[in-house]
Design brief:
Layout (H helix, E strand, L loop, with lengths): L13 H11 L2 E4 L14 E4 L2 E4 L13 E9 L4 E7 L2 H10 L12 H12 E7 L7 H15 L8 H10 L5 H8 L3 H8 L10
Parallel strand pairs: 2-6
Antiparallel strand pairs: 1-4, 2-3, 4-5, 5-6
Helix pairs in contact: 2-3
Length: 204
């Protein structure tokens, strides 16, 4: 699955892109931000030094902050763009790729292509890294990509206790089991965080 139809120019030198692929492709990484699903031709998630933007702000998150996702592919998408293809897990990536292989009888089902596309949007999305450094500054571009990756994922640090507790408070609709799976906090801690604060004492 490609993010955009890129121009022949590479966002990074061949060596820098190869280095990034060698270090990050095939890794499972924890997200710092929410990511939206692919809808239409516009990049659904754009990360730059200015922040994170979405093609559809009101769309629900496909992958939520603190979730662990699988980085399947890194591609050069033009002079100042790098594309990332993300799946819910490595197993999901394999299943979706296998599903995309047309079976012998696919011609009998005119809805097959749309079904596969809808299925893919449920388990994968793409991110576009927009670089400010130009093609003529390959070292600065490589440094900027590292910075943006660390803004997208927890690369150089882990979520703090405050991060985990804040996540629980902001996601009261999730079950105890789901919150435990995402944060790693024990059930008693999660229950305590979900309890409403005590009512203020009234003076007679």
């Amino acid at each position: 699955m490609m993010l955009l139809v890129g121009s022949p120019a590479r966002a990074l030198t061949r060596e820098a892109l190869k280095d990034l692929r060698g270090r990050y492709e095939g890794m499972s990484l924890r997200l710092r931000v929410d990511l939206k699903p692919d809808v239409g031709a516009k990049a659904p998630n754009v990360v730059s030094l200015d922040g994170v933007g979405y093609a559809r702000e009101g769309a629900p998150a496909l992958f939520g902050r603190l979730e662990i996702v699988y980085l399947e592919r890194i591609t050069g998408e033009g002079g100042t763009r790098v594309g990332l293809t993300l799946y819910r897990s490595q197993e999901e990536a394999r299943r979706l790729r296998a599903s995309a292989i047309p079976p012998p009888a696919m011609g009998a089902n005119p809805n097959y292509g749309r079904t596969i596309a809808a299925f893919a949007r449920q388990g994968s999305t793409t991110v576009l890294l927009e670089l400010k450094a130009s093609r003529k500054e390959p070292e600065r571009q490589a440094e900027e990509v590292e910075t943006l990756l660390d803004r997208l994922f927890y690369l150089k640090s882990e979520p703090t206790q405050d991060d985990l507790e804040e996540f629980v408070r902001q996601h009261r609709g999730l079950s105890i089991q789901e919150l435990h799976a995402i944060t790693g906090l024990d059930s008693e801690t999660i229950r305590a965080l979900l309890r409403p604060p005590p009512a203020p004492a009234t003076t007679p």
